[in-house]
Design goal:
This protein is an alpha/beta fold. About 50% of the residues lie in helices and about 10% in strands. The strands form two sheets. Strands 6-5-4-7-9-8 form a six-stranded mixed beta sheet, with helices on both faces. The radius of gyration is 23 Å and the shape is globular. The N terminus is likely disordered. One of its GO terms (biological process) is tRNA wobble position uridine thiolation. It comes from Zizania palustris. Keywords: Cytoplasm, tRNA processing.
Amino acid sequence: MAAGSAASCGGTGCGSHCSSSSSTAAEDATAESLGRLSVSRECGKCGGGVGAVAVAGGVGLCGECFRAHLFGKFKLAVTSNAMVRPTDSVLLAFSGGPASRVALQFIHEMRSKAIESWDASNSQALPVFGVAVAFVDESVLCSKPKQEIDMAIEDIKSIGFSVGIKAMHITPLEDVFSMASKDGEGRLREAVDMIDDDTGREDFLQCLRMLALQKIALENGYTKIMLGSCASAIACHVLSATVKGQGYSLPADVQYVDTRWEIPVVIPLRDCLARELSLLCELDR
């Protein structure tokens, strides 16, 4: 938009007195507040609304159409890849970030619509899938005050309860070792301290997170684990895995449904960008 305004008045050298300067600055400020996505004049779908946002492909959408656009991609990924069936019980891995927050909201909306359809059905033959939330607490490895961590966990619980989630699992990361040893915290610290490089340590922790989620799912009867991984995070993982020579397992890491685990792992936000998800969280407050 800034380039378009400059062209209409003969370039950027006309000085601060130019009438386009204030409007350009306002548009730039709006773009900055909307997650650094470009701002369009009108919605390309419904034709209304000022302050529409540009999504991938340069199409401008208003707030409502932008939200519907992302929800459509989420729903298409879930339905076309048979991620969630009516008989499933889904465990959503929740970190509190924009991606997992959007995944929680969208799967809640899909379930609410399924419940409405079930109530309206005469036969009520098919059940409605269940949703629960899991948060892996890694505070044993960080130096943050316990009060701050407790507040964060309470915030996570309140977010889950706000969308009608009744089952919340807050699991310390060291519980992965609890089956073999009572001193799970000591075993975890010992294992992490044995790894010298940061990359190897992060790979190890990522594996432990998934093992913790698998343990929760197996102990509580969940049939699917849903992650909030988006296209941006997957792109980073592809580059990282390529550099580290992990090409053998890479195709399975980035597919919609990963059946290598005992409880299958699904990634419904694979086609959504991190900037889009952050912007949606800001628009929905």
